[in-house]
Write a structure and sequence with these properties.
The chain contains 9 helices and 14 strands. By secondary structure, it is α/β, with parallel strands linked by helices. Helices cover 27% and strands 25% of the residues. The strands form 2 sheets. Strands 6-5-4-3-2-1-14 form a 7-stranded mixed β-sheet. Strands 7-8-9-10-11-12-13 form a 7-stranded mixed β-sheet, with helices on one face. Strand 5, helix 4 and strand 6 form a beta-alpha-beta unit.
Length: 262
């Protein structure tokens, strides 16, 4: 069995929990930890989990909304952190990494086995040192995670084809971004090739995948200033030819509840 839930998703903090195996022999990991220590603990409890139930933290990249609490949480609860060399180097330079947590370096080109879970990192264009995203599997079902990417690539689309579930960035609506109050440099950064995907770009990416096995699609990392849930859902629903209500939504405050693949 594979299942996943979001503790929160957005520019103020991202954290996803993924579980593989049955309840008695499950492997559980966090993908990113951008919420503060106590809030991460509280939101895990909301899902019926404690920090002691976790077996690792997978880090996509060093930005604070994804890695701001990784080392503090890992050190507090004796959890191993898995991240690329570039990500670790960037966190050390920023003073966010410390020796209180055990780290294991991963390659964007090599899968890893984490107890009963298979983890495949893959590269994405984003303005970070060595960013990756992940496909996670129990050997039967596969979940793809894709946030913080400026433009889609053939490699990304090949990696995400044939999934059973996908957590997909729908960061902004282009009209809202360009007509909004952000400074010009920030608008250009968000909309640039190493920034984020807008709703229509996410729609095009989803439409390019083999979607024949998809049972769950969750819109994630929505901007609180430059997007609206109904716009994100509508875009992904068009790609799938489904009702908008079928598209899940991971919010900043509530994340999303458990989605099961079994």
């Amino acid at each position: 069995m594979l299942r996943f839930a979001s503790l929160g998703s957005g520019s103020s903090g991202n954290c996803l929990v993924v579980e593989a195996g049955d309840l008695l022999g499950a492997t559980r990991v966090l993908v990113d930890c951008g919420l503060n220590l106590r809030e991460t603990e509280r939101r895990l409890g909301r899902l019926g989990l404690a920090p002691a139930d976790l077996h690792g933290i997978l880090v996509t990249h060093e930005h604070g909304d994804h890695a701001g609490c990784v080392f503090d949480f890992a050190a507090a609860h004796n959890i191993t952190v898995y991240l690329t060399y570039g990500c670790l180097a960037a966190l050390r330079e920023e003073g966010k990494a410390h020796d209180g947590a055990r780290t294991i370096l991963i390659s964007s080109k090599e899968p890893l086995a984490l107890r009963g879970m298979e983890v495949r990192p893959y590269t994405v264009p984003h303005d970070a040192r060595e960013p990756v995203q992940f496909v996670l599997s129990d050997g039967q079902y596969r979940l793809g995670v894709l946030t913080d990417i400026g433009v889609s690539t053939r490699h990304v689309e090949q990696t995400l084809s044939g999934l059973d579930a996908l957590v997909l960035e729908t960061n902004y609506d282009a009209d809202m971004l360009w007509g909004g109050k952000y400074p010009g440099w920030l608008k250009a950064r968000i909309a640039g090739p190493f920034g984020h995907l807008d709703n229509l770009e996410s729609e095009r990416l989803l439409a390019a995948l083999d979607r024949s096995r998809l049972k769950h699609v969750v819109a994630a990392h929505l901007s609180q200033h430059n997007n609206r849930p109904e716009l994100a859902r509508a875009a992904l629903a068009r790609a799938l030819g489904c009702e908008e209500a079928w598209i899940g939504l991971a919010t900043q405050d509530d994340g999303c509840g458990w989605r099961d693949l079994s």
